[in-house]
Structure prediction request, 228 residues.
Amino acid sequence: MHGFRIAASIVAACAAVVIGGSSADAAGDVKAGRQKALQCQTCHGLDGQAKLPEAPNLAGQTQVYLVKALKDYRSGARRNDMMSVIVHGLTDQDVDNLAAYYAAIPVTVGESPK
Amino acid sequence: MHGFRIAASIVAACAAVVIGGSSADAAGDVKAGRQKALQCQTCHGLDGQAKLPEAPNLAGQTQVYLVKALKDYRSGARRNDMMSVIVHGLTDQDVDNLAAYYAAIPVTVGESPK
Prediction:
C-alpha cells in the first residue's frame, strides 16, 4: 500500500509537469509580455488584431510559432522592414513573454465557409 | 445639375471599386480556396486551426498577409522545409483563393489577459 502511494504520487507529479509544460505561458510571463506588447500594438493591436492589412493577427496564435517568428526576424532568417528593426532589442525572455501573451488571448473560430 | 450627376456617378463608381478591393474575397474565390486547402489541412486544419504547434493558425488571418506569406515561400524569400515544397505548384490564382478562404473563416477574439 505504501508502494502504491509513492507510485501514485510520482504519477501525479509527472502529470502536473506535463500540464505545466504544455500550458500557454510555460516559457513566458503573460503579464510581462503584455507590457512589452505596447510597442507592437500600432501594427498588431494590443489585442492581437492587426491594425494594418500587411500585419498578421497574433491573437491566439500558437506560442511555438510566435517564438520562431520573432527569433527568425532577430537572426535575419526572416526579413521585414519593420520587424527586423523592432526585434533587435528583444532578449530571449522578451520573446518568450511576448509569445506567451499573444498566445493567451482567447480566440473562438466560427464555421468555415463551404 | 447634369455636371453634378456625372460627378456623383464617378464618386459612386470609385467608392464601389474601393469597397470591392478591400473585401475579404475580392481577389480570390473562397470556394475554390477551400478545395485547395484540403492539402493544407494536415498542418493548418481545414478550419484554419493548426494541428501542430509549429504551424500557425490561419483562420481569420488578414488576406494581404496570407498572400504575401505564400508568395514569399514560393520565391524563396521565406523558407520552411514543408512550405517551400507545398507552394511550388501554386498559381497566383491558387494563392489568392487560399488566402480568401482562410481570411473568410470568422474569428471572435475574447478579452486579452491583463
In short: The beta strands of chain B are 107-109. Helices of chain B lie at 2-22, 30-36, 41-44, 63-75, 81-86, 92-103.
